[in-house]
Amino acid sequence: MNELELKYGCNPNQKPSRIYMENGADLPIKVLNGKPGYINFLDAFNGWQLVRELKAATGLPAATSFKHVSPAGAAVGLPLTETESKIYWVDDLGELSPLASAYARARGADRMSSFGDFISLSDVCDASTAKIIKREVSDGVIAPGYEPEALEILKAKKGGKYNVIEIDPNYVPDPIEHKQVFGVTFEQGRNELKIDRDFLGNIVTENKEIPDSAKIDLIISLITLKYTQSNSVCYAKGGQAIGIGAGQQSRIHCTRLAGQKADNWFLRQAPQVLNLQFVDGIKRADRDNAIDLYIGDEYMDVLADGAWENIFKVKPPVFTAEEKRAWLDKNTDVALGSDAFFPFGDNIERAHKSGVKYVAEPGGSIRDDHVIDTCNKYNMAMCFTGIRLFHH
């Protein structure tokens, strides 16, 4: 199959729409179920590249959760702790496969943003992973294959309309890529940059120690940024992205946005949140939204009389700013990647508040010395990669 007609483009008024191979070759994908759309394929192809590179760099199964052509989460298949299983809502599923653990992490990093995601998996989708996907609101999944039981589970989702795409894992695109904007064709070499441990060798701070676990987190951060709309910043810990700031014009806004998401990820592990007693039958999305409000500044939206009764069995106490700060101070050894250089030390100051200990960025700012000095103030280890990772 050389081309596939789509219902419409980015919006319903944008017709006709299709994907096709200009060189006359067959498309590298098969649609096993559903009718994926234009944005679905943008998410699928970007996400597939991300997880394929994560798998190659770490040797671990990888998953990502995409929304609007940027990842909401990305992770490799490390085992979940008991607390992580609870905050990702998979503690009732028993032992998970490594691939299922990767998706649980990717989906769980920012559940608000992952609502209605498109999923990319580095490995053949197994039943363990499909069972997690089955219970989440999602638009579709792309993987190099599907176990029979997994495919049956996915085909039954959304009344039989769930999008399931199989991609040829051996497909290699042309080294030159093209896109059109306003009728003008742009051409560039594909970004084939290989990101691995060797990428992290130029440590410019007084602290030169970056343990292997932190190197994995920095690699996850940088590969995630490679497929995130720029400007972008990514916080990572424990084998997963925990906060991604995408598409901001100001880098400090990226750092703040991603830092707030990382803070929310950690606040969800606090006893005040783990002990929330939700009413029976509450939908998963409503539960996620309630938690997001409870740990944020608009907590009275869910704690006001007349509101909390619809969400909780017992009215929770306010999670005070002081309590939240005390809890966040326990978050340590976080890794941070940036797709371009930090122009000011204020990014490092903000990162420090979210427990960042390890940093990877291209370097090259006229204020590099200031950024390095700020890292030294907090005993952070920072490496200059020398390579920008813009993605548009």
UniProtKB/TrEMBL annotation:
State if Transferase is listed as a keyword.
Answer: yes
Cellular component GO terms held in the UniProt record? cytosol
- Identify the keywords attached in UniProt to this record, alphabetized: Transferase
InterPro entries according to UniProt: AICAR_Tfase_dup_dom_sf, AICAR_Tfase_insert_dom_sf, Cytidine_deaminase-like, PurH-like
Q: Which Pfam families match?
A: AICARFT_IMPCHas
Q: Which SMART domains match?
A: AICARFT_IMPCHas (SM00798)
Could you provide one GO biological process annotation from this protein's UniProt record?
A: 'de novo' IMP biosynthetic process
Q: Which GO terms describe its molecular function?
A: IMP cyclohydrolase activity; phosphoribosylaminoimidazolecarboxamide formyltransferase activity
- Its EC number is 2.1.2.3
Under what name is this protein listed?
A: Bifunctional purine biosynthesis protein PurH
